[in-house]
Design brief:
Elements lengths: L1 H22 L9 H15 L29 E3 L15 E3 L5 H4 L43 E8 L3 E6 L5 E4 L3 E4 L5 H12 L6 E7 L4 E8 L5 E6 L4 H7 L7 E10 L2 E5 L1 H7 L13 E6 L3 E6 L5 E4 L6 H7 L7 E11 L5 E6 L19 E6 L7 E6 L5 E4 L6 H4 L15 E6 L5 E6 L1 H5 L14 E4 L2 H4 L4 E6 L5 E4 L6 H7 L12 E6 L5 E6 L1 H7 L13 E4 L10 E6 L5 E4 L7 H7 L13 E3 L2 H8 L2 H8 L2 E3 L5 E3 L12 E2 L3 H6 L14 E4 L5 E6 L5 E4 L6 H7 L13 E3 L5 E3 L12 E4 L9 H26 L1
Parallel strand pairs: 8-12, 13-17, 18-22, 23-27, 28-34, 35-39
Antiparallel strand pairs: 1-2, 3-4, 3-7, 5-6, 8-9, 10-11, 10-12, 13-14, 15-16, 15-17, 18-19, 20-21, 20-22, 23-24, 25-26, 25-27, 28-29, 30-33, 30-34, 31-32, 35-36, 37-38, 37-39
Helix pairs in contact: 1-18
């Protein structure tokens, strides 16, 4: 009995503790939703390694559907960036094998640095997997009907009739009044004659048209190395290319030359190159119900680059010759150099070897029959690149390009002793690039100035293939700049020109502004890597009096500072509106002009003015508060809180708005009574003053029975106005009542006998209460305690 009493004592104690925790929203023996989600994710990771579980909804990451086929990591694949920016093509779709030689490593001259794209794959890059058939549904006359096809039959003449006939599973259609008719397997033309013959047994003297309405559909399967393998529903006129297009086409590992079409009665191998190169639909077989399309792994491939009509990466068939491969690439361009077709070939020892083949005058010889193997890189050069007696002139010259080299030709002859050079050409050095015996390039510096002066030793003899590059002065010389800051129209950095003076820079910067101080302009000049000196210049003497001696020459890196005139003052304007005789904007006449002085200039107050309610706004206060970073200081001073999930956040107790701090409270009646006096305020640029008309009474706002404006009573107190507003409501916080004076002051009205003036406002705030859902708290507590009690009883029974 005593043990039972002890158990129930602990149960009751736990129940009270749970109620306390739930009432104050404290976490106790519970897991938050986020924690439960995280635990579930970790459990999935532990039990299913390699599977990415769904990400919680509040996470930035999203669940990714696993791919049906994992890419083969044994083959290195690189992406080719798209050549056509903005065309909408996916540049990552077409990829090339890793065996394509890297020119930057092997230093082998090639006709183009651009890596060709695999041929044929671009046809399928626009496929988006839309289940809607993108091909035409108009059936040809030789189309054979089958189960599911729908025919639209129209009769006119002595009889007007519209029929929709659908071929059922037996291959028949039912024609009203005429009976059943078998159409399965007939062509569309034969079906038209059969229907007409059937209807002539019922009707006479009529014309007839038969069209295919809804075409039957069936499912085919696309598997293997395609981008989106699976089952697809297609129409009866669909072909193999249509199904491949729907599946996204072969991927970078898929073949285009050995696509298998598998049927019950056998397998057909389709070479898509025949369709892609000729466009004949005979090379694109029509599909049947239950067909399976399998795309095998790509076979051997070779690269065609340079002066062929269609550079690219092509898949090879067995026994492909060089003639076959050139035909795949579209043949030679008109400027192709056929005397040397270079084959860069893989060897069995993992090396590479270069093979040159002459196809110029060998129409049927051994050159054309050279076999092409997997991994070959075949380059066709331009005849302009292969001319032997050519030198090149490039860069800052009038006529760049190729020139014929004659015997004993020198650099001076190539530049025509300066006639080829553009103005401002850099004469101290030009670069001469020449092929070395090892196949690389050598660079030699050439002094064009010495050549033009007749120095024969500097004039280098040229060799075939030499390239002379001439530079402009601005290309090789470090740019020189000067900078101007301060009171000019366009401050900034400017190019330093020869013999450029201070006045030139000021003019290019848009000349000084109105407030610039011209008597002392400072020029900072670097005299060494670590020292700077300043030069003081009288810009007024330079600009207005033309003193050339004071107009100094500028040097590279000079910094010019044009200061503001400390005595310059632009118009400083204030605004006074409301009940004054002449409202509007007024310029301040002196630095210490006061509010009273401006009010007198505005003609004083009207008879309707209510000076106690004057609103004085100074925007500079908001700007100063932002510069002092008061808002961030208030945010950092607010307390930190921790929620039930353990997340720490800063509680937002104060809402700082610098725009609400712009009002200055002034005692206008006292200022008027003293004709200014010590209560007067010095005006600043941008100040705004509004003097309202006399109000109708006193406003009572907040948690009162009837908020509104109540007529002014001479000796009424705060409690009197609240009583006339119907008194406070049950939800009011009467102790926090505030009296808002007409001039902007706020007074705590904990005592209700405070005097109220005309134009004041009384605010009774509502009470903020923290409510607790006791029914829900008790229910949750009872559930938890019930579970704990069951556990305690089970443990107790087991211990006995």
């Amino acid at each position: 009995m005593e043990k039972s009493r002890g158990i129930w004592f602990w149960i009751i104690l736990i129940f009270i503790f749970v109620l306390y925790c739930l009432a104050w929203r404290r976490p106790f023996c519970q897991t938050t939703d986020q924690e439960a989600i995280n635990q579930a994710i970790e459990a999935i990771k532990a039990s299913h390694p390699g599977v990415t579980p769904p990400t919680p909804a509040n996470s930035d990451e999203r669940y990714q559907t696993p791919e049906l086929f994992t890419p083969d990591t044994a083959v290195a694949i690189k992406s080719i960036p798209s050549k056509e920016a903005g065309t909408g093509r996916d540049s990552a779709k077409a990829e090339f094998p890793s065996w394509i030689p890297n020119d930057t490593v092997q230093n082998i001259p090639r006709p183009s640095t651009e890596i060709p794209r695999p041929f044929g794959y671009d046809v399928f890059t626009a496929a988006d997997g839309d289940p809607t058939d993108a091909y035409a549904t108009v059936a040809p006359e030789e189309y054979r009907l089958g189960t599911g096809d729908n025919l639209l039959v129209n009769l006119w003449g002595r009889v007007d009739l519209e029929l929709q006939l659908t071929i059922d599973r037996t291959g028949q259609v039912f024609i009203p009044k005429a009976g059943a008719l078998t159409l399965d397997g007939m062509t569309l033309a034969a079906a038209r004659e059969a229907i007409k013959s059937k209807l002539e047994s019922v009707y006479s003297n009529f014309e007839l048209s038969v069209m295919l309405g809804q075409m039957r559909t069936f499912r085919v399967f696309v598997f293997g190395e395609v981008r989106r393998p699976g089952a697809y529903t297609v129409k009866a006129t669909a072909t193999l290319v249509d199904a491949l297009y729907r599946s996204g086409g072969p991927n970078e590992r898929g073949t285009l030359r050995r696509v298998r079409l598998v049927r019950e009665n056998g397998t057909q191998t389709v070479d898509l190159y025949d369709f892609l190169l000729t466009g004949r639909r005979n090379d694109d077989p029509r599909l049947q119900a239950g067909d399976a399309i399998f795309v095998d792994v790509v076979g051997p491939r070779a690269v065609a680059r340079g002066r062929v009509k269609r550079p690219g990466i092509y898949e090879l068939k067995e026994s492909t010759t060089l003639r076959d491969f050139i035909e795949l690439a579209g043949g030679f361009d008109a400027d192709a150099y056929r005397d040397r077709v270079m084959i860069d070939r893989l060897q069995d020892n993992d090396g590479r070897v270069l093979i040159d083949v002459n196809l110029a005058n060998d129409a049927e010889g051994d050159g054309w029959s050279t076999p092409v193997f997997d991994g070959d890189d075949i380059s066709v050069f331009s005849m302009f690149e292969m001319r032997p007696n050519v030198v090149w002139l490039e860069g800052w010259v009038k006529h760049p390009g190729a020139f014929e080299r004659s015997d004993s030709m020198r650099v001076g002859d190539l530049i025509d002793m300066g006639a080829q050079l553009k103005p401002d050409a850099h004469l101290r050095r030009a670069d001469l690039l020449r092929k070395s015996e090892e196949g690389g390039w050598q660079i030699t510096a050439v002094d064009l100035g010495a050549i033009l002066d007749g120095d024969g030793n500097a004039d280098v003899f040229l060799q075939n293939g030499d390239r002379l590059t001439v530079y402009a002065l601005e290309e090789v010389q470090r740019p020189k700049y000067v900078t101007i800051e301060g009171q000019v129209s366009r401050p900034g950095q400017y190019t330093l020109y020869e013999a450029m003076r201070l006045s030139d820079l000021v003019f290019r910067a848009g000349n000084p502004t109105r407030e610039a101080y011209l008597k002392e302009v400072e020029v900072a000049r670097r005299i060494s890597n670590s020292q700077t000196k300043t030069i003081s210049c009288d810009l007024d003497q330079i600009i207005n009096r033309g003193d050339l001696a004071a107009d100094i020459l500028l040097e590279d890196g000079d910094y010019v500072f044009v200061r503001s005139d400390p005595f310059y003052r632009d118009h400083r304007l204030v605004t006074i509106e409301g009940e004054v005789r002449f409202p509007g904007r007024y310029p301040l006449l002196r630095d210490d002009e006061s509010f009273f002085a401006v009010l007198e200039r505005a003609g004083g107050l009207t008879t309707r003015a209510f000076p106690q309610g004057t609103v004085f706004i100074r925007q500079e206060i908001s700007k100063e508060a932002k510069q002092r970073n008061i808002g961030q200081i208030l945010i950092n001073s607010q307390p930190l809180q921790r929620d039930s999930t353990g997340r720490i956040y800063r509680e937002q107790l104060l809402d700082f708005n610098p725009e609400s701090m712009t009002r200055i409270i002034i005692d206008v009646p006292r200022i008027l009574a003293e004709n200014g006096g010590i209560s007067d305020v010095v005006m600043r640029h941008g100040d705004k003053v509004f003097i309202p008309a006399e109000p109708s009474g006193v406003q009572v706002l907040g948690a009162v029975a009837s908020p509104g404006t109540i007529g002014f009573g001479q000796d009424w107190k705060v409690k009197d106005y609240i009583a006339r507003a119907g008194g406070t409501t049950r939800s009011s916080d009467y102790e926090e009542t505030r009296l808002i004076k007409a001039d902007g002051q706020v007074i705590n009205c904990s005592r209700r006998n405070i005097h109220v003036d005309l134009g004041d406002a009384i605010f009774v705030p509502p009470r903020v209460e923290k409510r607790t859902d006791w029914l829900r708290t008790i229910t949750q507590g009872a559930s938890i305690v019930g579970g704990l009690a069951t556990t305690v009883l089970v443990v107790h029974s087991l211990s006995n």
